[in-house]
From TrEMBL, chain A:
<dbReference type="InterPro" id="IPR016208">
    <property type="entry name" value="Ald_Oxase/xanthine_DH-like"/>
</dbReference>
<protein>
    <submittedName>
        <fullName>Xanthine dehydrogenase</fullName>
    </submittedName>
</protein>
<dbReference type="Pfam" id="PF02738">
    <property type="entry name" value="MoCoBD_1"/>
</dbReference>
<dbReference type="Pfam" id="PF01315">
    <property type="entry name" value="Ald_Xan_dh_C"/>
</dbReference>
<keyword id="KW-0500">Molybdenum</keyword>
<feature type="domain" description="Aldehyde oxidase/xanthine dehydrogenase a/b hammerhead">
    <location>
        <begin position="23"/>
        <end position="126"/>
    </location>
</feature>
<dbReference type="InterPro" id="IPR008274">
    <property type="entry name" value="AldOxase/xan_DH_MoCoBD1"/>
</dbReference>
<dbReference type="InterPro" id="IPR046867">
    <property type="entry name" value="AldOxase/xan_DH_MoCoBD2"/>
</dbReference>
<dbReference type="InterPro" id="IPR036856">
    <property type="entry name" value="Ald_Oxase/Xan_DH_a/b_sf"/>
</dbReference>
From TrEMBL, chain B:
<dbReference type="InterPro" id="IPR036683">
    <property type="entry name" value="CO_DH_flav_C_dom_sf"/>
</dbReference>
<feature type="domain" description="FAD-binding PCMH-type">
    <location>
        <begin position="1"/>
        <end position="217"/>
    </location>
</feature>
<protein>
    <submittedName>
        <fullName>FAD-binding molybdopterin dehydrogenase</fullName>
    </submittedName>
</protein>
<dbReference type="Pfam" id="PF00941">
    <property type="entry name" value="FAD_binding_5"/>
</dbReference>
<dbReference type="InterPro" id="IPR036318">
    <property type="entry name" value="FAD-bd_PCMH-like_sf"/>
</dbReference>
<dbReference type="InterPro" id="IPR016169">
    <property type="entry name" value="FAD-bd_PCMH_sub2"/>
</dbReference>
<dbReference type="Pfam" id="PF03450">
    <property type="entry name" value="CO_deh_flav_C"/>
</dbReference>
<dbReference type="InterPro" id="IPR051312">
    <property type="entry name" value="Diverse_Substr_Oxidored"/>
</dbReference>
<dbReference type="InterPro" id="IPR016166">
    <property type="entry name" value="FAD-bd_PCMH"/>
</dbReference>
Length: 674, 324
């Protein structure tokens, strides 16, 4: 039972590991000292398609080198669900940047140099890396993220569109994006006898242990994954990546612990990306703004290795009630790296098209964009629209574009809705009474920097009826009770549920130890529930240069009970900052001839700098969703990037009268029309 | 990273053996070494030479030691009041941390950030002569519209150098064959058929100082930079300008463009077109057009012509109104 006297949940507790992080005491994956450590460096394929015939090393650079592994001499690996993990197993090259060899050396410098001068004997083949909406190899995938049908249809969309008094028919495109967490993927692998120990930066220690076990033919319990502190992931560390397998392989062959930390450039190949999308969206409406039909078509790409399908249309299936609704996804396999989850997969690009198209509809109908949405909004969403508009100061907005000019700046405002599914996944937690030392709460969860460790302590403290200081959280280790992935904005709900259950069980049993598995409860949870929100943006556009600045960005969210307002606010505004990046800055630029993303570092792949974030804030309704989980919480990790880019794009139109439908909105696209 | 030797320079006459290069702040060179684009055998650290002072020249003007840090130079009172365009350009560049490390000489000698040049596994006539230039057909959104060649369309990335080009700065050079001085506008080469050579410096020559002449027009000067985010980004277009107006007519003017050419682009044709003309937006636009007539934009960088035209008019117009 909840102790009504304690109030840890809901208080703005600072991150428990904060002092360790800022003082440098917290260890990230590559920072665990090891005896006889060796260092690995990946040799990436310089071609996007072909066959590797031989690897020749330069004897002059071999002083430090312990081994150069490639498919000609690498140990055999077992098959896993993920073909990307079959590293150095075949002569086939599926994309530029794919690992084709691994240098393991006594020093980092020696490994890097040997990798730079290694000679690859490659037979290159013609490649195709360009996504087009009319690509002949486009097909309907079996399923799209998150494992749902590619196509859906209700009602008669064509008839409804044909007879609708008002329609929009627009095509939006979003570029390839790369997750780029601050901490690149990194692994230290060590074999203790037949057991594999991995210090690895990931979002799912239990899952990585299982997968690595499969690849090396070991039971999961023989693989020990330690991921105590993670410098971000944004989805790119949700499952095992080649770095973990390569480090373990290098350690097996050399008999030494091996460190493999990816350089930033490698973050643009083997760890995933948000696939580019082309989306055509057609909306039919009555003249007073009642939505009668939506058709949302999406085209995207995957690799030749693995069919991962970004799913912009899925969000349209639940965002607005509309009698005639069709969504479809087509995908083409290309000679590119495999796309993966990136914060708000599907929802983030999908809401660009849907919410910008709605803005275009509002203009056609001469309706306030908030009012248009309010007509189709459920109660939680409606509250966000109303309260958000009030907090932002939306009322009295002149809906006409290009009306406000201050000096060289055109100024405008825009808005968009937000949503994200309320997810939870089965997890198990264990709690132990330690007498005078308080309680140990253990769960194999991962804290990506979000504050997961802190809110679990708050939840446990309240359930146990003790101060937070009496709770000792152990996470980030695959030998702890199995936890779900830190993904899908599900961590707090999934792990908090298990921790709540274990603490209750301990109190009710009076034992010194209790374990709780949520599998059965999660199976009964409603699956059609969502968080909602509304984003409001004010931008200014320099009439001289076309440069865009976001003067104000505000998010209002209906995300259930907020467990910790300090870390929650960081999650919301962090997502919104990433939304600024998606709207204005981020783009992985493809060179079709080389098959490469050429801006593969953080000097050239722009994310917002501090100066790009002016006034930003988030608020929330804080109404517990009691029927979802014991905390009444919905996930908050992704909703900030869902809709915020559209609010900014819509504001740019309002400022300038220029509608950009190809993200990011940059000065070169605006300048010709200003 | 290739193994290299490191030593500190003890005097200007040390010279350099083949395969050796000078090291100052290292903010660009060390990156290129990690990437395998630069592979020197020896680094000779010049930061301990007595070249870190800003001094006044006997006949007026200012001498900037080549080891003066960008942040120190930007804050120097003589620069801020006599040559504000230079201070503004410095502060528009890089980040606080980088400006604390980067030196005047090193800033001038930094290499292009063309994405093909920065990746040793890609073709590039600058890092591997004869390997071709993929940028012409590929990614060239931020590459040259002026001064490029079939072999290379790299842009010079410096903000500081654009201001120096506008200010008639002179580069002092010391080397095995003695000392010499050249205008900063002659320091950087256009690529032609030999894009691998960035500058007019011979091997072993060291920039010891940059001299700013007495230049009254520079007291009213400004730098305006457009970029893809608000801070910590290279220019996609920039203008350094100085203007003196008498009786409504342009009495004196200096103008240079950044991020449009393989070198800081002194806009002499525009200056010529402006002298004696009414100090109006129409004159400024016409002057920009005179310079940009030579532009040869490619598929994705034609916006730079519009951008520079707008920036020129806006920067000069602002200087017209800026009477101190």
């Amino acid at each position: 039972m909840t102790n009504t006297l304690s109030r840890a949940v809901g208080s703005p507790l600072a991150r428990l590991e904060g002092p360790a992080k800022v003082s440098g005491a917290a260890r990230y994956a590559a920072e665990y000292p090891q005896d006889q450590m060796a260092y690995a460096w990946i040799v990436p394929s310089p071609v996007p398609r072909g066959r590797l015939d031989a690897v020749l090393t330069d004897p002059a650079e071999e002083d430090d080198v312990l081994v150069v592994l490639w498919h000609g001499n690498a140990p055999h690996l077992e098959k896993s669900d993920d073909p990307e993990l079959a590293v150095l197993q075949s002569d086939r090259i599926a994309y530029r940047g794919q690992p084709v060899a691994l240098v393991v050396a006594r020093t980092l410098e020696g490994a890097r140099r040997a990798a730079q001068v290694v000679q690859l004997d490659i037979t290159a083949e013609d490649h195709d890396v360009e996504l087009r909406a009319d690509h002949p190899d486009l097909h309907t995938p079996d399923e799209v993220v998150p494992g749902v049908p590619a196509d859906t249809a209700t009602g008669d969309v064509d008839a409804a569109l044909a007879t609708a008094p008002a329609t929009v028919d627009v095509t939006y495109s979003t570029p390839a994006l790369h997750n780029n967490p601050m901490e690149p993927h990194a692994t230290i692998a060590r074999w203790d006898g037949e057991d594999l120990v991995l210090y690895d930066s990931n979002q799912h220690p239990s899952g990585i242990a299982k997968t690595l076990g499969t690849v090396f033919g070991l039971p999961a319990e023989r693989v020990h994954v330690i991921a105590e502190h993670i410098g971000g992931g944004f989805g790119s560390k949700g499952s095992a990546r080649p770095n973990a397998v390569l480090a373990a392989m290098g350690s097996w062959v050399t008999g030494r612990p091996v460190q493999l930390a990816l350089p930033r450039q490698a973050m643009f190949s083997m760890v995933g990306h948000r696939a580019p999308t082309v989306q055509r969206i057609r909306i039919g409406a009555s003249l007073d703004g009642e939505l009668t039909a939506i058709d949302h078509e999406s085209w995207t790409q995957t690799s030749r290795l693995f069919e991962f399908v970004e799913s912009p249309g899925v969000v349209t299936r639940s965002m607005y009630p509309v009698p005639n609704l069709r969504t479809s996804h087509r995908v083409v396999p290309l000679d590119v790296p495999t796309p993966r989850w990136m914060r708000g997969p599907g929802e983030a690009p999908g809401m660009v098209a849907l919410e910008c198209a709605l803005d275009e509809l509002a203009i056609r109908l001469d309706l306030d964009p908030v009012e248009l949405r309010a007509r189709s909004a459920n109660p939680g969403y409606l509250s966000c629209l109303r309260r958000g508009a009030e907090r932002f100061g939306w009322s009295g907005r002149d809906n006409r574009p290009r009306q406000r000019r201050e000096g060289d700046w055109w100024i405008g405002t825009g808005m968009a809705g937000a949503t994200y599914p309320a997810n939870a996944m089965p997890s198990t937690a264990r709690v132990r009474a330690l007498g005078h030392d308080g309680y140990e709460v253990a769960i194999g969860a991962a804290d990506l920097g979000t504050g997961a460790r802190t809110i679990l302590a708050q939840i446990a403290a309240d359930e146990l009826g003790v101060p937070v200081d009496d709770v000792h959280i152990r996470i980030g280790d695959s030998t702890l009770p199995v936890a779900s992935v830190a993904g899908g904005s599900s961590g707090s709900a999934s792990w908090g549920w298990a921790v709540t259950g274990a603490c209750r069980a301990l109190r009710e049993s009076g034992d010194d130890e209790a374990t709780f598995d949520t599998t059965e409860l999660v199976g009964k949870m409603p699956t059609d529930r969502h968080a909602y929100g509304a984003h409001f943006a004010e931008v200014r556009v320099d009439a001289v240069t076309g440069e865009v600045r976001v003067s104000r960005l505000f998010g209002m969210y209906d995300t259930g009970r907020i467990l910790n307002p300090r870390t929650a606010r960081s999650q919301f505004i962090g997502g919104m900052v990433m939304g600024i990046g998606m709207a204005l800055h981020e783009e992985s630029v493809l060179d079709p001839a080389l098959g490469a993303w050429v801006n593969h570092d953080l000097a050239e792949y722009h994310i917002p700098a501090h100066a790009d974030v002016e006034q930003i804030d988030a608020e929330w309704l804080d109404e517990p969703a009691a029927d979802l989980n014991p905390m009444g919480a919905k996930g908050i990790g992704e909703i900030g990037i869902v809709g915020s880019p559209a609010a900014i794009v819509n504001a740019v139109w309002h400022a300038t009268g220029v509608r950009i439908r190809d993200l990011p909105v940059r000065l070169d696209k605006l300048l010709p029309s200003l | 990273m290739k193994t290299f030797e490191y030593r500190t320079a003890t005097g200007l006459a040390d010279g350099l053996e083949p395969g050796a290069v000078f090291l100052a702040g290292g903010t660009n060179l060390v990156d290129l070494m990690k990437l395998g684009v630069a592979t020197p055998d020896v680094l000779v650290d010049v930061t301990r030479l007595p070249l870190d002072q800003v001094t006044e020249l006997p006949g007026g003007g200012v001498r900037i030691g080549s080891a003066v840090r960008n942040s120190d130079l930007a804050a120097d009172r003589r620069i801020r009041t006599g040559y504000p365009v230079l201070s503004q350009a410095l502060l528009a560049g890089a980040s606080g941390q980088l400006r604390n490390m980067a030196t005047t000489g090193g800033n001038l000698l930094q290499r292009t950030r063309c994405r093909y040049f920065m990746d040793a596994t890609m073709p590039c006539n600058k890092h591997l002569p004869g390997s071709g230039c993929p940028a012409r057909e590929g990614d060239h959104r931020n590459l040259a519209v002026l001064g490029g060649s079939d072999a290379c369309i790299a842009t010079h990335p410096s903000d500081m150098a654009v201001a120096l080009a506008a200010l008639d700065a002179v580069v002092q050079i010391d080397g095995p064959a003695g000392s010499r001085s050249i205008p900063v506008t002659d320091l950087h080469r256009l690529p032609g058929d030999t894009p691998e050579r960035d500058t007019a410096l011979e091997h072993g020559e060291l920039i010891t100082a940059v001299d700013l002449p007495v230049l009254p027009v520079a007291a009213r000067s400004a730098y305006r930079k457009a970029r893809d985010r608000a801070s910590y980004a290279f220019a996609v277009g920039a203008v350094a300008a100085a203007l003196e107006v008498k009786d409504g007519l342009v009495h004196d003017v200096r103008l240079a463009f950044g991020a449009v050419a393989p070198k800081p682009w002194r806009a002499l044709a525009a200056e010529q077109a402006l002298r004696g003309q009414p100090a109006t937006r129409e004159s400024f636009l016409a002057a920009a057009d005179a310079e940009l007539a030579a532009a040869q934009p490619l598929r994705d960088n034609a916006y730079k012509v519009t951008l520079i035209r707008n920036l020129t008019a806006a920067t000069l117009s602002a200087l017209t109104g800026d009477v101190r």
